[in-house]
Amino acid sequence: MKASDTLSVTHEDAQAIDDCWNRMGVHGDRSCPLLSEHIHCRNCAVYSAAATGLLDRYALQHEDRAQVSSIVENDVKTRSLLVFRLGEEWLGLATRSLVEVASLQPIHSLPHQRSRALLGVANVRGALVACLSLVELLGLDAADGVASSARIMPRMLIISAQGGPVVVPVDEVDGIHAIAERVLEAASRSGTQASSKYTHGVLQFKGRSLRWLDEEQLLAAVTRSLT
């Protein structure tokens, strides 16, 4: 599936919104008469109202959309996980939840945040997409993280939630890896996930501890944060 197809929900919602910031605002020809007063579109009440309308659509779609069936993987010996870092912690998320790994974009806060996990909205190819903090959702410490390097580039993960795509910033993406089912099952049975939210288990991977996230529980928490 192409990235343009996977973001169709977001773009369908955007069509119902007058995206004046893309036509005559900071992303357009800058002809808006209000631009001199607000300096940037994110400071304008029209932009805030559009962002709030987007979040309302997430709530409505969550109520109306049927639960998507999980893919049966009984014959598969490995599972595909996206491995990424938040602070000093490495995490793995099933790639079936992933739409795209994108470059970091500016996050615009909203005047009335609906939850502590909601950072605001980001502009993804002209459409507003809700942006959430996994640090807040997972209850992680806001640590300083590892030493910086020119090769380490923060990214945004676009993940598929029930109400539509959402973006989450991460400190580093290691890549997509195939993990043996038996290794994941052993981690799930070990009980090391008991003190961690939305976690199947913890396993050793490439010389470090990797927290394998329970995508169903995590995506349910994402939806609650938006509604």
Automatic annotation (TrEMBL):
Its main location: cytoplasm. Keywords: Cytoplasm. It comes from the Bacteria. Residues 78-224 form the CheW-like domain. Pfam families: CheW. Coiled coil: none annotated. It is found in: Cytoplasm. InterPro entries: CheW (IPR039315), CheW-like_dom_sf (IPR036061), CheW-lke_dom (IPR002545). The keyword Cytoplasm applies. This is Chemotaxis protein CheW. It comes from Pseudomonas violetae.
